[in-house]
Amino acid sequence: MAKYLLLKHYRRSGPEHVPGTDAPMDQWAPEEITEHIDYMRRFADKLTESGEFVSGDALSPEGTFVRYDGEGRPPVTDGPFAETKDLIAGWMIIDVESQERAYEAAAELSAAPGQGGRPLHEWLEVRPFLADPPATAG
Amino acid sequence: MRTLSPQVLGVLVRRGADFATAEDAVQEALIEAARHWPDDPPDDPKAWLVRVAGRKLIDAQRSEAARRRREERVHDEPAPGPTEQADDTLLLLSRCCHPALSPASAIALTLRAVGGLTTAQIARAFLVPEATMAQRISRAKRTITGERFDTPGDVRAVLHVLYLIFNEGFTGEISLAAEAIRLTRQLVAATSTDAVSTADPEIAGLLALMLLHHARQDARYAASGELIPLDEQDRSLWDTSMIAEGVDVLQVALARERLGEYQAQAAIAALHDDAPTADETDWPQILEWYDELTRLTDSPVVALNRAVAVGQVDGPRAGLAALGDIDPGLDRWDAVAAHLHERASDDAEAIRHYTTAADRATSAPERTHLIKQAARLRAAREDG
User: Fold this and answer.
1) If you measure CA to CA, which chain B residue comes closest to A130?
2) Which end of chain A is more exposed for a tag (fewer CB within 10 A), N or C?
3) Which DSSP category does B256 fall into?
């Protein structure tokens, strides 16, 4: 078993969208948004039942950069940056048998319905977690 | 209690009870035990639990139509007394490691039913929520419901699951490596009652392999969490009594002259453990065992480790030639290439491979180690 982080990118510099699926969510009909959220909730429920769900959440698109600024000084903040290319809209951690299964789960999440109930074909970034080394490796 | 409950479960399952129902019955019997034992401790706790769990089981199966049969069965229940344990453990293990289960489910079910760990403990060991682990276990139970085992199943499937548990090896509240050793010991004990000619020597081979690797556990990590490779480990931290036991177990297994991959892997581990210093490692003999292992399994991981041994015996160029025949897409391929290039004094290539290997590492301690190797060589080049 290995853990994978599935990242939903809100605006990103990754691969190109399938044409007709890149309208921002605030341009969708309310029931389309409801259906989209319901799909993701059902997906998480299904993964819990199959013993593959670890955790997941949606994130606000508003992000602020924070930095240490020296002893006794308050942290420096910067942003939010409206033009940021890579905003993470949400994430899910799964614990699955194989990389193949991780891709299959990500593809299913990517099929969440968007405008008109059509699959969103959203890109998800799949990142493996670093684990413990096996006991027999040396 | 932790050792008794799997034993009681084993008895009920052997008598033909459905797995999930039997487990519920054992839980109920344990609750009864907690209630009654402080005032009235039984002479034979296991027999007491078997008797009570047996009644709970029958209660659970009761229906109007079956009432008469239930009363007959309660009446026929065997008198309390010693119950044999050996073949129950084997039966439980082969049921929990059934080939119909995914490895993750088999591991979870084995730790629960044979190891006697709680669902919460198993969940913490695998860093998943308890609800997720509970689902894994109940799915596993559903999968094997209706699968009848009146004889122990495939021992090789059991060995594979125990090997996987060992390799998970999380330390924390539960060391899965220690847990795997405990379960493998039980399996050895369960099968040693067989005629010696029929028990698979690979069972002892696996136990030896685990002991010989686990003996080095305390030397494998720096305080920083970084992985320390075998040749740099502080050998005074190795557990010599565990090594001695592993060697004994291995020698008995090898004497049976039915070699298998666990015995061959254990032999390699024994040769590493036997060297007082890394330089005194008997690489020619290790290479012979890798050749043997290559005949037993076509695993690319074995081929990769064999290339390391070739490099030690015939020099880094020979090692690189052996590496050339192996798929570079394999985990640790770049790490081996980096090591061999470094030994061949080809630092530029070594740095390149160490960097790639660090990017591809599947564990944090391994990645830290590889990044430092690249940094060390780079610094040496700049100084020179």
Assistant:
1) B363
2) C
3) T
H-only helix segments in B15-97: 19-36, 45-61, 67-76, 86-96
Tally the C-alpha atoms within 13 A of residue B53's C-alpha that lie toward its C-beta: 33
Decide: residue B159, CB within 10 A, 0-12 exposed, 13-18 middle, 19+ buried.
buried
> Looking at the partner chain, which of B127, B135, B361 has a beta carbon nearest the beta carbon of A48?
B135
- Name residues whose C-beta falls within 8 Å of residue B92's C-beta, 6 or more positions apart in sequence: B6, B9, B10, B13, B113, B114
Give the Cα separation of B95 and B85 in Å (integer).
16
The pLDDT value recorded for residue B240 is: 97
Q: What are the two backbone dihedrals, phi and then psi, of residue B285, each rounded to the nearest 5 degrees?
A: -70, -35
- Report the C-alpha gap between A22 and A33 in whole angstroms: 14
- pTM score: 0.82
Q: Is B82 helix (H, G, I), strand (E, B) or coil?
A: coil
pLDDT digits (tens, 9 = 90+) for B225-252: 888 999 999 999 999 999 999 999 999 9
pLDDT at A114 over 70: yes
Give the ipTM: 0.81
pLDDT tens track for B254-292:
999 999 999 999 999 999 999 999 999 999 999 999 999
- Using a CB–CB cutoff of 8 Å, tell me whether A133 touches chain B: yes
